[in-house]
Design brief:
Largest interface: A-B, 47 and 45 residues
Strand content of chain B: under 5%
CATH topology of chain B: Helix Hairpins
Strand content of chain A: under 5%
Structural class of chain B: mainly alpha
Largest sheet of chain B: none
Number of helices of chain A: 2
Number of strands of chain B: 0
Structural class of chain A: mainly alpha
Oligomer: heterodimer
Number of strands of chain A: 0
Chain lengths: 94, 84
């Protein structure tokens, strides 16, 4: 998506008062956080889909086993994430 | 245009583009994963079995996405904002 064709082009940003500028900053931070969570969710869903839904798809709904597996998968992935960071820190201090 | 109108336009545009970007990635992921699952041996045309597999797979992938999203958010909250 090219920014040069954004519908915001016609907007006069000069007319923003300080309070609205601050609100925009706050809003953008929030949106960025939201985008990061979504990006991480895409990655995790990919990883955990492969692990937790290995066979043929019988139904559009998740069964209990799959739901549990997905939640565990997310949590173990995060555990490993922390463990990796810790391990790297140990390597650096040794 | 006054300040509020400009601000609202910025908000609206950012949300719209962000939602579009998220939907694009989701569609791409669904396409890849459900193709892998449902079109195991590409034939001369799509079979009804492949079609119903694909429909179920799409729904299932989106359910999985939502489930993973809430599990991730729960975990991230537990970790606190400091650890990423």
């Amino acid at each position: 998506m090219s920014l040069s064709q954004s519908p915001l082009d016609g907007l006069n940003l000069e007319s923003l008062n300080d309070q609205d500028k601050a609100e925009i900053r706050q809003f953008l931070n929030k949106q960025q956080q939201r985008s990061q969570i979504q990006a991480q969710t895409h990655q995790l869903t990919q990883v955990c889909w492969t692990k937790c839904v290995p066979g043929a798809v019988k139904s559009g709904k998740l069964d209990k086993t799959e739901e549990t597996c997905l939640a565990n998968c997310v949590n173990r992935f995060m555990d490993l994430n922390l463990l990796t960071v810790k391990h790297l820190q140990n390597m650096r201090s040794n | 245009m006054d300040s509020k109108a400009v601000k609202d336009a910025v908000f609206q545009q950012v949300v719209a583009e962000s939602n579009l970007a998220n939907a694009r990635v989701l569609i791409e992921k669904i396409q890849e994963n459900c193709f892998e699952k449902c079109i195991t041996k590409p034939g001369g045309s799509i079979s009804s079995g492949e079609q119903s597999c694909a429909t179920a797979c799409m729904e299932k992938y989106m359910n999985a996405w939502n489930h993973v999203n809430s599990a991730y958010i729960t975990r991230a909250r537990q970790e606190g904002a400091g650890t990423q």
